[in-house]
Specification:
It is a single chain. It contains five helices and nine strands; from the N terminus they run βββαααβββαβαββ. It is α+β, with helices and mostly antiparallel strands and 181 residues long. The protein has one domain: Gcn5-related N-acetyltransferase (GNAT) (Aminopeptidase, 3-Layer(aba) Sandwich), CATH 3.40.630. It has a nine-stranded mixed beta sheet, covered by helices on one side. Strand 1 and strand 2 form a beta hairpin.
């Protein structure tokens, strides 16, 4: 794996895909997958149904220079795959920490893609964080396995509001201590 820098955000290169900054041309696939209820229900922030303009506003927010979150498209074009197989993000937190979040298009569920993307981003550690956190809904054990497979440790239960579900949902919270070079 190598790490290439772009003007605003780094690209993480792997054999199977690149984690590259989201771009305006990603709007179509992001909207298609974001509008899928199976994807939206497993996130805190994607509404369902997806209102018009939501994707464009999201892309504008995550590509702004003053953004609080870095978002990468999981781009499989290097091996003949689609430009957007999912998204993975790091939300800035205080004390040199970030929260990792991701969603994978249903066509790529159960293929190891999520684990590979999380592992690649953690190993790249583009923000040189000391710790990364993550939380998953308790009715999504596959996402919990992704985190534990990548070395995250369970630290407790909580709850988070899901826009798609319009309700609070029980979560499992994880963290991973990182070594910065």
């Amino acid at each position: 794996m190598s790490l290439d820098a772009t003007t605003l955000q780094q690209t993480v290169v792997t054999d199977r895909f690149d984690l590259r900054p989201v771009r305006v041309s990603d709007a179509g696939p992001i909207e298609m997958w974001g509008a899928d209820e199976r994807v939206a229900r497993m996130t805190t922030s994607i509404p369902h149904p997806l209102p018009p303009g939501t994707t464009e506003a999201f892309i504008a927010r995550v590509t702004a220079e003053d953004r609080e979150e870095d978002v990468w498209a999981i781009d499989g074009t290097k091996v003949g795959g689609p430009e957007v197989m999912g998204l993975i993000a790091l939300q800035r937190m205080d004390r040199n920490q970030s929260e990792i979040g991701y969603w994978i298009a249903p066509h790529f569920w159960n293929t190891g893609l999520a684990s590979q993307a999380v592992k690649a981003l953690v190993e790249a550690n583009p923000r040189s964080n000391d710790t990364m956190f993550a939380s998953v809904f308790q009715d999504n054990p596959a996402s919990a396995r992704v985190l534990t497979n990548c070395g995250f440790e369970y630290i407790g239960d909580a709850e988070a509001f899901s826009v798609a579900r319009n309700s609070k949902v029980q979560t499992w919270t994880y963290h991973k201590k990182l070594t910065c070079a």
